[in-house]
């Protein structure tokens, strides 16, 4: 129950609470809840490789805490976007365009945000990390004072205290006036615990960004906002455990390294890592990244992807349409590889065989629903999927929760 609640807090409506077992919780029902939570965590981009419901039931500390941090991190960083905070445009440096902001990690944006407010406060000191630089609470004290409304009564009294532990406590008391005393204790601040301090700063940003909206609309902002399709692909990649974490598809795939990791996950041994530039030299960085992208496209062709008109240069340039075409085929190939593995068959499973299997399962279970393909409109209300689930595991679907009707609202409820 806890994981489901915190997932919905980080990403609202991820889990339909009607599906959560809440009463008379047997071990089996608890296992179902944890399986639901893990699947949902994966859907929002959490890496759940090597984690299953049994690990959570056993309470394996490093796995539980690792998953919990991922969920919290996603929830905190979801708001650090131009869509939610257009004022982020004020953090651009000389010579940068709005696209350059998207290439930054949330951590890098938060560092810019902190330093922006330090500069506006007339403070010469700058923050380069959320570890050693914040242990004396000085930066936090100035930041809280700068972002707070005048009515909050924030003071700089913490700076008068020479003892760092006591100073951190006074600083946190000031943060409490803003409702932002979360994630850290004085000890966490003094010891520079990275994850907790990062969460503390992100929470302050989400509540009091203190950034002026641009005087005019940002040109091309709509085209830069992440689409549902892009978010789905990004979350899928991150759930696979790729490194580094993918924040913006088109910049984070430009060196090919994430794509190579995905190839190796789909079909181990596909990538000849001796041909891959894992680190880039200062003088040949551009050519080395381009060579990686050329090799990534070459591997796609070896896996029979349809890549007509797609070159490594397109991936390196961040061409949206062509990059998405490659990613879609990667995700499709991964899904089919899983199905092939489950079926225990030789060779690749094709979509036609999956459709035939679905319809045979439905018919054998006495269901009246069926599909003609993955683009069949019959899938749009989710009922055929529910029938398939019930056919695979009879009694697992509570049909009392499914409403009749063809409105969009009813379809969404069924899909959830």
TrEMBL record:
Keywords of this entry: Actin-binding, Repeat
GO MF assignments: actin filament binding
Keyword Repeat found: yes
Pfam families: CH (PF00307)
Keyword Mitochondrion applies: no
Domain Calponin-homology (CH): 1-76, 104-209, 227-335, 348-416
SMART domains associated with the record: CH
Domain of life: Eukaryota
GO cellular component: actin filament; actin filament bundle; cytoplasm
Gene3D superfamilies per UniProt: Calponin-like domain (1.10.418.10)
GO BP: any one term: actin filament network formation
Annotated protein name in UniProt: Plastin-3
Species name: Camponotus floridanus
